From TrEMBL:
Domain of life, source organism: Eukaryota
Protein name: Transmembrane protein 53
A Pfam family this chain is assigned to: DUF829
Natural source organism: Prasinoderma singulare
SUPFAM superfamilies noted in UniProt: alpha/beta-Hydrolases
InterPro entries in the record: AB_hydrolase_fold, DUF829_TMEM53
Length: 359
């Protein structure tokens, strides 16, 4: 009982500290999502309103999904990087659409979600519930591919993997995620990576200057107050991506040899751990690009980028078919075993009694 109380108190302290540092409303006790979370807010025509802020995440459903899903092999959820605009993410959606995938949803995580797991978990739950609604309608059987860019692996994806693994609400959705494509990701946003991203990519990614200065100023305080908490979160983050349901996902790692925020050495080390922990036979490969900055692979090598996406869509769709066949065969074997046990028990109950010998 005492450890649970300490955990609850620590979570409340994190929320209050975040509220003080970033000036957003603390989450009420018992609520399932931060008050700053805004779901499916329609963007302005210029596409600039649909972006995650310092403490507010947003989801945008793509209007042409139902048209694009005709003939598509998979549907894609785009987990964008912090500060990305809808106009920028739309270019990546077009790339997926051109290779036989149907973009379903664009997710714009809050910057603070990289460090506060409660915010990341609330966002992940919103994404999964939307996918679950699609599944329950009964007319959307496309497997799901998660396209993860930069820090969204920590701001959303890892929490999605944990919820799929542990939460009974999403049990029916667990087997529908076929794969994940990492672009300049995954990045464990320690202070070193976070400051580098904000200073080097802040303007290019659309992060407002006020937000950049606020994040830079808060980083030393966060490190000082939450050093042990962040260390625990990093261990939890990598376990979520390497174990559990993520072990069975088809995986492609797109990275640049010149990326200073998601270094090639860290991406390749992640691939090695996936090879050791993954399910036998699942597609897993890493594709290197040269001379490309962080989140700049498609811009600098569009043809090669689309070629790799097309190959991965085919791999993920084929892997999903294979997984379903394996699961169906296992169900048939279990049914046959149960039937044999039942028949054996029934025959034993109806055997005629042997006559007793008279002495």
């Amino acid at each position: 009982e005492a450890p649970r109380q300490r955990t609850a108190v620590a979570a409340r302290v994190r929320c209050c500290a975040a509220a003080a540092l970033f000036r957003f409303p603390a989450r009420p006790a018992g609520s399932e999502q931060p008050m700053a979370l805004r779901t499916l807010r329609p963007p302005r025509r210029d596409g600039r309103s649909a972006r995650g802020g310092l403490c507010s995440s947003r989801l945008v459903a793509l209007d042409d999904y139902h048209e694009a899903q005709r003939g598509a092999r998979v549907k894609v959820v785009l987990l964008s990087w912090m500060g990305a605009t809808q106009r920028t993410v739309a270019k990546f959606a077009d790339a997926w659409r051109a290779v036989g995938a149907a973009p379903r949803l664009a997710v714009f995580p809050a910057m603070a979600a990289m460090w506060f797991e409660d915010m990341a978990s609330a966002l992940a739950r919103q994404v999964l519930r939307l996918l679950l609604d699609d599944l329950r309608r009964g007319n959307d059987a496309l497997p799901v591919v998660l396209a993860c860019y930069s820090g969204s692996a920590k701001a959303c994806l890892s929490e999605m993997a944990l919820l799929l693994q542990r939460d009974p609400e999403f049990a029916s959705l667990r087997s529908r995620v076929a794969g994940v494509c990492y672009d300049s990701s995954p990045v464990d946003y320690t202070s070193r990576h976070g400051v580098r991203f904000i200073t080097e990519q802040g303007t290019a990614s659309g992060i407002p200057e006020v937000v950049r200065w606020a994040a830079l100023g808060a980083t030393p305080a966060l490190d000082l107050v939450f050093a042990s908490t962040f260390a625990r979160q990093r261990r939890r983050f990598w376990r979520a991506l390497e174990r559990g349901v993520a072990r069975g996902w088809a995986t492609m790692l797109l990275y640049s040899e010149d990326d200073r925020i998601a270094p090639a050495t860290e991406v390749l080390a992640f691939r090695t751990r996936l090879q050791a922990a993954g399910v036998t036979g699942r597609p897993l490969r890493a594709v290197a690009f040269s001379g490309c900055p962080h989140i700049g692979l498609m811009q600098h090598a569009p043809d090669e980028y689309r070629r790799q996406l097309r190959a991965f869509v085919l791999e993920a769709a084929a892997w999903q078919v294979r997984r379903e066949k394996i699961a169906w065969d296992a169900t048939l074997r279990e049914a046959a075993r149960s039937s044999a046990l039942f028949r054996g028990k029934a025959q034993g109950d109806h055997q005629p009694e042997q006559p007793r010998a008279h002495l």
